[in-house]
Specification:
Blueprint (H helix, E strand, L loop, with lengths): L32 E8 L5 E9 L4 E11 L2 H10 L8 H22 L8 E12 L4 E5 L2 H8 L3 E3 L3 H5 L9 H8 L6 E6 L2 E7 L7 E8 L2 H11 L8 H5 L4 H8 L2 H4 L14 H5 L4 H19 L9 E5 L6 H11 L3 E3 L10 H15 L6 H4 L9 E3 L2
Parallel strand pairs: 1-4, 4-6, 7-10, 10-11
Antiparallel strand pairs: 1-2, 2-3, 4-5, 6-12, 7-8, 8-9
This protein binds adenosine-5'-triphosphate (ATP) and the ligand CC(=O)N[C@H]1[C@@H]2OC[C@@H](O2)[C@@H](O)[C@@H]1O[C@H](C)C(=O)O.
The site of adenosine-5'-triphosphate has 22 residues, from loops.
GO molecular function, one term: ATP binding
Protein name: Anhydro-N-acetylmuramic acid kinase
Pathway: Amino-sugar metabolism; 1,6-anhydro-N-acetylmuramate degradation; Cell wall biogenesis; peptidoglycan recycling
Length: 389
């Protein structure tokens, strides 16, 4: 564990706060879909694909999942397109097409050797730009082409309606966390540590008793730091962070950002951390890794001040849960039980992809996917657009 820095304030005692609306009565529906979910996350490691059986309210069955990694050349191409708001030129159209084709390849790999044909695909695409205050969120990857390639209806454009209504358009996964958390002790917090990190607080009042927001950086700035110094994609198993020392002064500078004090709901783009390399510049490889690992944890500790009540436990999903230094430091600094989501029987490598399958099913049922407590939408909102093959 990285020692707790003197200059950082501890989580204040949890205080009561506004709660999201409680669920409407479920709509009657007798059937289920076999739905594939596809996510290309901010860490740009590859395409996650998973299959579930669901009616959009409960998860009836969970099937296999996989990650189709991006090769370095494609990752560089993707990175070069970050920040784009338009795909309307040759490079943009090529990326839109190639992402769809790679997602089709991921679905074929997922289904290989099985007799299964999915009924539905939930497709996130890859976020190039996210600025909900300006009403803009851009995901690359052509859903119409994906539907044609696979001969299966595709639900995509899942952030657009929420952003158009004044919501943050992110995070979208909380309603899936809530569906999975039925029957578990609550309040429960699900913490996702991918490229960016986000939390879902699930209260006791039913499946829509949710508060969710992005906490701050996930592995993104740490991955970038390690890649720049070593060419490796990440601080594998936290080895570098374990060997370094925390630079408390720089951590406090990293935490001196208006986002952390801002009340939820709120969301981030990867670009919101563009200033981070400048702050850690000059540190040794190991001390930089320790300080950027501590930054992820400090942002989570700060996020706890925006939660209505302390949870009974934190369950962690996303690639960050594989980093033992990060997990131990979270446990120490939060002073609460912190476990990987596998402790409650979920698959942390497949959860986000599964969520997009679930959201596609909710779209087909016309059930809301975002809520005042998760994105700041004015009311529970449906979302997504259906592309038929
Ligand atoms: N063994 C490990 N040790 C340290 N870090 C790891 C390990 N395995 C994965 N990671 C981290 O997890 C990251 C990938 O996480 P994940 O797949 O959840 O991200 P993502 O889905 O792309 O992001 P987001 O949730 O922001 O969209 C890697 O970039 C790496 O930093
Ligand atoms: C705009 C965007 O793509 N945001 C992602 C990103 O990655 C993690 C965090 O920031 C989260 O808000 C969101 O993804 C997850 C899948 C979500 O919408 O729940």
């Amino acid at each position: 564990m990285i020692p707790f820095p003197k200059g950082l304030s501890r989580t204040p005692a949890a205080r009561p706060g506004p709660l999201g609306p409680v669920a409407d009565a479920p709509h009657g529906f007798g059937g289920t879909w076999l739905a594939v979910g596809l996510m290309s996350g901010t860490s740009m490691d590859g395409i996650d694909a998973a299959i579930i059986e669901t009616d959009g309210e409960t998860v009836v069955g969970v099937g296999p999942s996989l990650t189709l990694p991006y090769d370095d050349a494609f990752r560089d191409r993707l990175r070069a397109m970050l920040g784009r708001t338009s795909l309307d030129d040759e490079d943009g159209r090529r990326l839109h097409r190639d992402l769809a084709l790679r997602h089709a390849e991921a679905v074929r790999a997922l289904l290989k050797g099985s007799e299964v044909t999915p009924d539905l695909i939930g497709f996130h695409g890859h976020t190039l730009w996210h600025d909900p205050k300006a009403g803009v969120t851009v995901q690359a990857g052509d859903p119409a082409l994906l539907a044609r390639e696979l001969g299966v209806p595709v639900v995509a454009d899942l952030r657009q309606a929420d952003v158009a209504a004044g919501g943050e358009g992110a995070p979208l996964v909380p309603i899936y966390h809530a569906a999975l958390a039925e029957g578990l002790d609550r309040p429960l917090v699900v913490l996702n540590i991918g490229g960016v990190a986000n939390v879902t607080w699930i209260g006791k009042r039913g499946p829509k008793d949710l508060i969710a927001f992005d906490t701050g950086p996930g592995n993104g700035p740490l991955d970038d730091w390690v890649a720049r110094h070593t060419g490796e994609p990440c601080d594998r198993d936290g080895r570098l962070a374990a060997a370094g020392s925390l630079d408390e002064v720089r951590l406090l500078r990293l935490m001196d950002h208006a986002y952390f004090a801002r009340p939820a709901p709120k969301s981030l783009d990867r670009k919101d951390f563009d200033h981070v390399p400048g702050i850690v510049e000059g540190l040794s490889l190991e001390d930089g890794a320790t300080t950027l690992t501590a930054f992820i944890v400090a942002a989570v500790v700060q996020s706890a001040t925006h939660l209505p009540r302390s949870p009974v436990r934190w369950v962690v999903t996303g690639g960050g849960r594989h980093n033992p230094v990060l997990m131990d430091t979270l446990t120490g600094w939060l002073g609460a039980p912190v476990q990987p989501v596998e402790a409650v029987g979920w698959n942390g490598d497949a959860l986000e992809a599964q969520a997009f399958a679930f959201l596609a099913a909710r779209h087909r049922r016309n059930l809301p996917i975002t809520f005042p407590g998760t994105t700041g939408a004015p009311e529970p909102m449906t979302g997504g657009r259906l592309y038929r093959p």
